[in-house]
Structure formats: C-alpha cells, structure tokens
Backbone:
C-alpha cells in the first residue's frame, strides 16, 4: 500500500507538469486520437472492398483492433518510463536510482506517466464499444471477467516489451530499435486475425512473443469462434494470463541487467 500511495503521488506530479501547458496538451490529445482514427479508417476501406477477411467481418476485426489498442495505449501511458529509459543511462541518472531506498523497477516505472495517451485510449475504447454494439455477443459474468483479465494481461505484455527494450540499454546504452517491431508493429499485426498469417509466424507470436494472446485468442472466446478456428479451447482459456507471465519473465531479465550495469562514466 505504501508503494501504491507513492506511485499515485508521482503520477499526480507528472499530470500537473503536463497540464502546465494546456493548449499543447489538448493538441497532443487530438493528434493521438486522429492518428488512431486514420488507422481504423484504412481497415474499414479494406473491408469496403473485400467484405470479410478469413471469415472475420469488419466489426469482428474492429473488436480485435479495439482490444489491442486499449492495451497498448494504457501500457504507453503507465510504462513510459521504460520506453525513455535510455536517457537515464546516457545521462548517468540511473546511478542515482541505485542508491535510493526503492527498487529500480519501481522507480523507472513511476518515472513517467504519459497522460496524452488518453486520446489513443479513448479512440480504441470507442471502437471496441461500437464493435460490440454491432455484434451479437451474449455477455455473462464469465465473459466480462475474461475480457477484463485479457485487457490487463495485454497491457502487461506491452509493458514487458518496454522492459526488454529498457534492459537492453545496460549492454547497448541506446535502446534496440527492433523492439518497435513488436510494439508499434505488434499493434498493427494484432489488428487482424492471426489466421491470415503463416503457421511459423502464428507459432512465434504465440509461444515466444505471446502477441496473439493479447486479443486474438480472447476474441475467439468472446465471439464464440473457438470451434471454427481449430484452436485448442484450453489454450484459449489460459491465453489472458500469458501477459502476466511474460511481464514476470522480463522483470527477471531486468534484474539480470541491473546486476551487470556499469555507469557510463566508467
């Protein structure tokens, strides 16, 4: 509880500093939402031509898009500290974190809070709600709970990717750009059903980097498409927890990186 209270205190400070220039904040908010709207507009144009994609309708794909968009927006909002961690390594600020009576993971996690990602979150959430209204999903307590766990697990997955990028700075100083393939590129790939990709691609992004567990497998369950997909129902039930496991593994990777850290001044 002490850590939680301290985290919210840091968040309040970050929000206050970002709201100091309110016009700039509003423009950033609008820009984030506009970019995301254009992304979904391009998907809608695709379906205007082909009507369906591997058996998925526009609003079923919209459900995929909304889920992964919400997860990524929240991860960027609360996990921004890891995304810009390379600056702390280059400037030597991480040396200061090491002598503070708080864990380094917590310090980096609470270092930034990107409020303007609310624009991207709002757009994705609206698409999710509209898609739900256009689909005949029979909601129950089980499905609502499954959706909530899936969204939290998906957020943990993307935070885990940011942690990997940040940890790489202990060896490379600068964050490795390949992580963007799995973050921004992952959002693009995850906006479409994974059944359209080759088998090796699906297996890699299921068992190595569990991107498919963020929204594809959960959507199969929520849209009742498990039987027609040929995917194991047991795997679909476990899919939402893959993000938690992935984040836990990346936290262990972070600890290994911290133990091998050498100041840039050495």
Residues:
């Amino acid at each position: 509880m002490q850590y939680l209270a301290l985290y919210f205190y840091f968040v309040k400070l970050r929000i206050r500093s970002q709201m100091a220039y309110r016009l700039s904040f509003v423009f950033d908010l609008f820009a984030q939402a506009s970019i995301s709207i254009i992304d979904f507009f391009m998907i809608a144009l695709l379906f205007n031509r082909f009507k369906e994609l591997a058996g998925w309708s526009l609003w079923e794909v919209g459900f995929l898009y909304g889920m992964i968009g919400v997860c990524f927006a929240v991860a960027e909002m609360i996990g921004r500290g890891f995304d810009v961690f390379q600056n702390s390594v280059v400037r030597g600020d991480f040396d200061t974190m090491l002598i503070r009576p708080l864990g380094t993971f917590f310090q980096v996690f609470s270092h930034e809070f990107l409020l303007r990602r609310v624009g991207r979150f709002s757009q994705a959430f609206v698409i999710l709600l509209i898609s739900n209204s256009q689909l005949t999903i029979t909601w129950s307590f089980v499905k609502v709970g499954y959706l909530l766990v899936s969204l939290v697990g998906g957020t943990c997955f993307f935070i885990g990717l940011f942690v990997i990028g940040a940890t790489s700075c202990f060896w490379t100083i600068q964050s490795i750009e390949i992580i963007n393939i799995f973050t921004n590129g992952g959002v693009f790939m995850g906006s479409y059903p994974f059944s359209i990709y080759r088998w090796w691609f699906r297996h890699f992004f299921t068992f190595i980097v569990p991107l498919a567990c963020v929204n594809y497998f959960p959507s199969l369950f929520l849209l009742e498409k498990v039987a027609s997909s040929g995917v194991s129902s047991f795997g679909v039930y476990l899919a939402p927890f893959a993000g938690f496991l992935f984040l836990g593994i990346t936290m262990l990777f972070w600890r290994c990186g911290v133990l091998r850290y050498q100041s840039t001044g050495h």
Remarks:
- The first helix runs from residue 2 to 18.
- The chain has a mean pLDDT of 90.
- The radius of gyration is 19 Å.
